[in-house]
Amino acid sequence: MTHIPAAPAAVDYLLLTPGPLSTTATVRAAMLQDSCTWDADYNLGVVEPIRRELVRLATTPEQAADYGAVLLQGSGSYVVESVLGSALGADDGLLIVNNGAYGARMVEMARCLGLRHLELDCGETARPEVAAIESLLGRHPEITHLAMVHCETTTGMLNPLEEVAALCRRRGIRLIVDAMSSFGGIPIDLGRLGIEFLISSANKCIQGVPGFGFVIARRAALAACAGRARSVSLDLHAQWQTMEQQGGKWRFTSPTHTVLAFAQALRELEQEGGIAARHRRYQENQRTLVAGMATLGFEPLLPAPWQSPIITAFHSPTHPDYRFADFYQRLKGQGFVIYPGKVSQADCFRIGNIGDVSPARVRELLAVMAAACYWQEGAL
Ligand SMILES: *Cc1c(COP(=O)(O)O)cnc(C)c1O
C-alpha cells in the first residue's frame, strides 16, 4: 500500500481539447529514455536540431539565418511572460489587443510586470478591427510594441494577423504574436509578416506533450533583450545565450522526456507533409465537425469567416434538462473528451480539432453524439 492511489487504468480517450491533446503512441514512447542535461547526445543531438527545425518551419530558407529559437521550461503562459518581460525597454510602450482570455492574460502580465501598456479591449466575440488599432497607434506615439493572440482559443477565433502585421510594418511597430494554439497547424511566415517574436508551446499543434514552450524571433530582437528581463527564471536573453553558447544547453533543468517527445512530434509533422498538410487535416476535421453538429441542432458561436480550424465553440442547448457535466460524462464514457466553454457572456462548450485526430475519428464522435444528447427526444 502507498499513500498515492494507483494511477487510473489507462484508457485511450480521444482528447478534443486545445492542449494537452491526443498524441500518437510513438510520441509517447519517445519518452521512455532518461537523458543527462550535460550530455552532447541530448543537447547537440536533440535540442539543437529542434531549434533549427522550429526556425525552418517559421521562415523561408533565405531568411532563416536572421531568426533563432529559444525553448523555455513551463507552460505556454510562462513563455508569453518571458517575452513581454524581456522585449520591452524602460521607455517602450506596449499595445495589447485583447479579445479573449489569452489577450486578457497578457494584460494581467503587463500590469504585474509594471510595463507601460495600453489595452484595446475588443470584447470576446468581436474580431479586432485594424482601423481601431491604427487610430490608437496614431494617438499614442509612445507605443513601440504590439502584442496579439493569433488564434484566440477562448472562442476559436482567428484574429487578422496579416492585416495587423501589415499595419505594424507600415508604422515600425514591433509585433509579438501569441501563436500558441496555431503554430504548426496554420502556416505562418515570420519574415514575410515581419513578426519579431512568435510564441507557442510543445503541447499544441506540434502535437507533443506539455512541459515547455518556445519563442521564434529575429536574432536582432533577441539580442536587444539583453539586460531587460524583469525576472531571473524568465530571462529570455539569458536562456537564448546559454543555448547559443553551450550547444543547446538549457539554463536550468530541462524537461528531458518532454523534449524527446517533441523531437519525435516534429519528425511526425514532417512525415505528415509539413504544416500545410496538417492545416488541411485540421480544416477537414473542423468542417466535418460543424456539418455533423448542425444536423444535431448545435450552432457555432462564431460566424464561419472568423472561425479557425483549431477549436470550435458551440452554443449550449437551451433545454432545461441540459447539463454540461452530464453531457461531458456521456461522451467520456464513449471515449471522447470535449472541453467546457470559456466565454464570459455566452453559454458554450468547445470541441478541438487538433492533435492526433482524423476526420474519421470526428465522424465517430458525431455518431455517439446523437445518443449523448439525452435531453433530446429519441436519445438514449
Ligand atoms: C494554450 C494557450 C496559451 C498558454 O496556456 P498555458 O495553459 O499556459 O499553456 C496561451 N495562449 C493561447 C492562445 C493558448 O491557446
What attributes characterize this protein structure?
3-stranded antiparallel beta sheet, binds pyridoxal-5'-phosphate, 2-aminoethylphosphonate--pyruvate transaminase, 40% helix, 16% strand, 380 residues, alpha/beta, pyruvate, 13 helices, single chain
Description:
The model has no long low-confidence stretch (mean pLDDT 96). Strand 8, helix 7 (190-193) and strand 9 (195-201) form a beta-alpha-beta unit. This protein has helices at 25-29, 40-58, 76-87, 101-113, 130-139, 161-171, 190-193, 219-223, 236-245, 256-272, 274-295, 324-333, 359-372, and strands at residues 14-15, 67-73, 94-98, 117-121, 145-149, 151-152, 157-158, 174-178, 195-201, 212-218, 311-315, 336-337, 339-340, 348-352. The protein starts with 13 loop residues before the first strand and ends in an 8-residue tail after the last helix. The chain is 40% helix and 16% strand. It is of the alpha/beta class. The strands form four sheets. Strands 2-10-9-8-5-3-4 form a seven-stranded mixed beta sheet, sandwiched between helices. Bound molecules: pyridoxal-5'-phosphate. The site of pyridoxal-5'-phosphate has 12 residues, from helix 3. This is 2-aminoethylphosphonate--pyruvate transaminase. Residues 79-315 form the Aminotransferase class V domain. Its EC number is 2.6.1.37. One of its GO terms (biological process) is organic phosphonate catabolic process. It catalyses: (2-aminoethyl)phosphonate + pyruvate = phosphonoacetaldehyde + L-alanine.
